[in-house]
Amino acid sequence: MGADLTAQESLEPFRPGKDGPWNVAAAAHLARRLTFGSPRKLVQKILELGPRAAPTALLADRDETPEMLAVADSQRRIGSTESVQTWWAHRMLRGNSPARDKLALFWHDHFATSDTKVRDARLMMDQVRIFLRLGPGSFHALLKAMAKDPAMLIWLDGNSNRRGEPNENFARELMELFSLGVGNYTEEDIKEAARAFTGWHVKNRRFWFNQRAHDTGSKTIFGISGNFDGNDVLRACLEKRVCAEFIAEKLFNYYLGTPVSEELRKALGELYLASAHNIGSLVEKLVSSREFYAAHARRSILSSPVDFTIGTLRTLDAAAGAERLPVEMSRMGMDILRPPSVKGWQKGKAWLNSNTLLSRYRFANTLAGSTENDPRIPWDKLEKEGVEGIFSLLFPEGLDEKIRETIVGETGNDLKLMVTALVELPEHQYI
Known about the structure:
Elements: H1 7-10, H2 24-34, H3 40-49, H4 53-59, H5 66-78, H6 81-94, H7 98-110, H8 115-118, H9 121-134, H10 139-147, H11 150-155, H12 169-179, H13 187-196, E1 200-203, E2 206-209, E3 219-221, E4 224-226, H14 230-239, H15 241-255, H16 262-274, H17 279-286, H18 305-315, H19 325-331, H20 354-366, H21 379-394, H22 401-411, H23 415-424
Antiparallel strand pairs: 1-2, 3-4
Helix pairs in contact: 2-3, 3-4, 5-6, 6-9, 6-18, 7-9, 9-10, 10-14, 12-13, 15-16, 18-19, 20-23, 21-23, 22-23
């Protein structure tokens, strides 16, 4: 947050000219954060729409293309984890809704569910589709859908939650990770909430309310007693003010990545409430804010393996076999559909270590490859761009002159080597 702005002022809409220039660099910044990468056509579209209208347009619901529907159907029929990973990678790379895919990826981490335990790739695909369909809408609707999602219930032992033998796993994660955050509930709240969710089971791969397993006794949650069921617990969590702040802060970290003060946390909660619990509306406000376009907010988030691979390929307008991409992402530390724990993935600097950085370099080197399995880059188009065009494509905000001179000197104007060198730069690891 700028030193001369209050938290509230930093969340006000960015004013082109007054708060900074509205140019290709600003449009590319929005493209990288709200979608994957900054392909020229998308940047130009954003530039024309402006900072207020562009997020709305990018997050709008769009009918899937016949190609995407065909890929989804074929990969679902195969029904393996690898096939579902391929489907999602293909969507992110070639689909017409990258902003919704980027938001779905956030929810996949937030409601971290792994096929290592679910062992049903079709249910995992159904969960991702919930994120795609409901993720930009009401958080209330999304949380209620996830509480009855078969993959989630299997992941958090819903069928083991029975009257007289309550399993606390879902109730605990509901409060700690999904809605309130640590310190905003008691252990007794969890125990009583677990009783309220007894009987929320899975049968024949569908949600099933097993009435015989449900505890109908009185429960006391957040200091209030009653014959509560799971719906009552969800409502109670959603109505707590801290829920607004918790969700808004997580989204702020995802899209902006700048430090959050107590003052800013409260302002984010107000922004969430002013958005009527609508996530798409909240995201639009966050990425059109003065804070979003501040100089310190740009290239400040270390890219996830998905951002790095998909973003690089989209920026270069490259074709690639989607079945290979999840493998590349996994080598870099992000095995989609298989988060390491209920807390999702560690982020930031945790993305980079000696092994994962080497995997990023290896991926960069495949860009200049010539085998059938390598990404296919339209070199003829890049040839027309020339050296300056390639630099501006990958770094529209500019690049240090010494770095430019070094790269040009070391690559001898060989476009393939130049692209590889630029993708390997520390600056390219940030979005």
